[in-house]
Design goal:
- The protein has 430 residues and is mostly helical.
- The protein contains 15 helices and four strands.
- It has a domain of 231 residues: Cytochrome Bc1 Complex, Chain C, CATH 1.20.810.
- Helices cover 56% and strands 3% of the residues.
- It has a two-stranded antiparallel sheet with strand order 1-4. It has a two-stranded antiparallel ribbon with strand order 2-3.
- The longest helix is centred in the middle third of the chain and has 33 residues.
Length: 430
C-alpha cells in the first residue's frame, strides 16, 4: 500500500475523500461529474485541444490575470481611501511604507494591462479557429461582453492613483461620452458626477472598479465557462469530404451509447462520449488529433502549467518595472499631450482625423455590435481557415490597422498631437 492509499484509508482521509479511487475511464467520468470544481470542465476534449497551437492557453491566462487582480486589489483596498484629499497620499504610503506595497501595486498594474491583451488575443484566436460558429454563437457574444467589461475595469482603475497621468487620461476618455447622440451629456455627467473630474468621479470610479464591474465580470466568466463546458460536447470540426456540404449539429439531438470507445458521429459531426472501461492492450491504437481524451489529467495538467507560467511572468515584470506615479492631479495644469490609456489610443488617434461623433461613438459602437453579430451574419458553414479566406483577410486587415493606430497614438504623438519619433522624445505612458 503506497502513501496515497494509506492517507485515503486513514480516519482523516476517509473524512476528506468521499469519492472512491477511479480506475477505468467510466469511473473517472463519474468522478468528474461528482466533483464541484471539475464540473467546470467537460469530461473529455479532443486531443488537438491539448496543444499550445490550438488556443495558446489564452483563456487560462485571462483567468489567472483576473485572479491576480483580485488578490492584489483586495490588498490595496486596505490602505486606500477614494477621495482627492487622501488618494494620492495613500498610493505614496503604499509604495514607501506598506511592506511589499510597491510590489503588489506593480502586480496589480501590469496584470490589468496584460489582461486586456490576453482577452483581446483570446478572442482573435477564437475567430481564426472559427469557434464562434454554431453551436457556440452565444458564447462568442458573452466573450465580446467580457472584453468590454475588461476594458471598463481597467479604465475605472486608471483614475484611482489620482495623479496627473490618471486625471487627464480619464478626462480625455470621458469626454468621448458627451458625443453620444441625445443622451451623451447625461452619460458623461453620470460617470463624472458633475461637469468635470472631481471627488464624485473618483468615488464612482472606485465603486465601479471594486464592486460593480468585478461582479459583472465574475457572472460573465461563470456563464462563459458553463457554455464552454456544455458546448464542448459538440465539436466544430469537419468530417469527410471537404467538398460536401456540412450539416450542423444542433444541441438536443438524440444520442446513443458509444461503441468500442469510438466517438458518436451525427450529421457529419463528432460527439465526445464516455468510453466504457479501457480497451485491451492489443486493441490500442495511436490517437489522432480528433480522438477524445480525458480532461483529467491531460488538459488540467497543461492548464496548471500555463497558469504557473503566466503568474511567473507577471511576478517577474512586477519585480522589474515599477507602476508609474506622476505628480498629484492638478486640474489647472494641463499636460501636453493629453493622452487616453493606451488601449484607447487608437480611438484618440481617430479623433485627430474625424469628427468626435464618428471616432468616439460610431466606430467603437460599430465594432462592438459587429463583433456580437458576427456569428449570426457569417453563413459560411466551414470552420477551417482554408475555407474562410475572405473572413480571415478582412479580420486581419482590421487588426493590423487597429494595432498601427494604437502604436501611433501611444508612442508617436507628442505636444499638440504632433508627430515625434519615440527614440528622440518619448511621450508614451502606461
Amino acid at each position: 500500500m503506497n502513501v496515497k492509499e494509506r492517507v485515503r484509508d486513514s480516519t482523516i482521509g476517509r473524512s476528506i475523500f468521499r469519492i472512491p479511487e477511479r480506475v477505468t475511464e467510466r469511473d473517472r467520468a463519474a468522478g468528474h461529474w461528482a466533483s464541484f470544481l471539475m464540473h467546470l470542465y467537460p469530461v473529455k476534449v479532443r486531443r488537438v485541444e491539448l496543444t499550445f497551437k490550438y488556443s495558446a492557453f489564452l483563456g487560462v491566462a485571462s483567468l489567472v490575470l483576473f485572479g491576480s487582480l483580485l488578490v492584489s486589489g483586495i490588498f490595496l483596498m486596505f490602505f486606500y481611501v477614494p477621495s482627492p484629499a487622501n488618494a494620492y497620499g495613500n498610493i505614496q504610503a503604499i509604495q514607501t511604507e506598506v511592506p511589499f506595497g510597491q510590489y503588489l501595486r506593480n502586480v496589480h498594474r501590469w496584470s490589468a494591462h496584460l489582461m486586456v491583451l490576453a482577452v483581446a488575443a483570446h478572442m482573435a484566436r477564437v475567430f481564426y479557429r472559427g469557434a464562434y460558429k454554431s453551436p457556440k454563437e452565444f458564447n462568442w457574444v458573452i466573450g465580446v461582453l467580457l472584453l468590454v467589461v475588461t476594458l471598463l475595469l481597467s479604465f475605472t482603475g486608471y483614475l484611482l492613483p489620482w495623479d496627473q497621468l490618471a486625471y487627464w487620461a480619464v478626462t480625455v476618455g470621458t469626454a468621448m461620452a458627451s458625443y453620444v447622440p441625445i443622451v451623451g451629456d447625461q452619460v458623461r455627467d453620470l460617470l463624472l458626477g458633475g461637469p468635470t473630474v472631481g471627488s464624485a468621479t473618483l468615488l464612482r470610479f472606485y465603486v465601479l472598479h471594486v464592486a460593480v464591474l468585478p461582479v459583472a465580470l465574475v457572472a460573465l466568466v461563470t456563464a462563459h465557462l458553463w457554455r464552454w463546458r456544455k458546448d464542448s460536447m459538440l465539436t466544430t470540426d469537419e468530417i469527410g469530404d471537404p467538398d460536401e456540404p456540412v450539416a450542423k449539429l444542433q444541441p438536443g439531438l438524440p444520442m446513443t451509447e458509444p461503441a468500442n470507445g469510438e466517438p458518436i458521429v451525427l450529421d457529419g459531426k463528432r460527439v465526445l462520449g464516455v468510453v466504457p472501461g479501457k480497451p485491451a492492450a492489443g486493441d490500442r491504437k495511436e490517437l489522432s488529433d480528433e480522438d477524445p481524451v480525458m480532461v483529467w489529467p491531460h488538459l488540467l495538467v497543461r492548464h496548471a502549467v500555463a497558469a504557473l507560467a503566466v503568474l511567473f511572468v507577471v511576478l517577474l515584470i512586477a519585480l522589474t518595472f515599477d507602476a508609474p506615479l506622476k505628480e498629484i492631479a492638478n486640474p489647472t495644469d494641463t499636460p501636453n499631450p493629453e493622452k487616453a490609456p493606451w488601449y484607447f489610443a487608437a480611438l484618440q488617434e481617430l479623433l485627430a482625423h474625424f469628427h468626435p461623433l464618428v471616432a468616439g461613438v460610431l466606430v467603437p459602437g460599430a465594432i462592438v455590435m459587429g463583433l456580437m453579430a458576427l456569428p449570426y451574419m457569417d453563413r459560411n458553414p466551414r470552420f477551417g481557415p482554408e475555407f474562410r479566406r475572405i473572413a480571415r483577410i478582412t479580420f486581419t486587415i482590421f487588426m493590423v490597422i487597429w494595432i498601427i493606430l494604437t502604436l501611433i497614438g501611444f508612442a508617436f504623438r507628442g505636444p499638440s498631437w504632433s508627430w515625434v519619433w519615440p527614440w528622440e522624445e518619448w511621450h508614451g505612458e502606461l
